[in-house]
Amino acid sequence: MLQDGENEVPRELVELGRKITQVPEPYRKELQTAYQSVIDSVRRRRRILNLVQESLAQLRLDIKYLMFDLDVTRQERDELKKQLEDL
Known about the structure:
Blueprint: H1 11-20, H2 25-86
């Protein structure tokens, strides 16, 4: 099966696919349909997991920017307070 990151299929499923090709024809077709359904499900879950991981990475970055912005805003506030007190 495919082994290219997002579409990577676990080794066990690849082996199962090879074994299904050795099953007699009447049973093979039914097993191949079920096998393809499992493969599609694994790929879909892998894509979803990748999207979730990318979203979490973006969220972490956004939080870092927000924390930086908050710190700068607090510093500016404190400086303005000090300037007002000095008047």
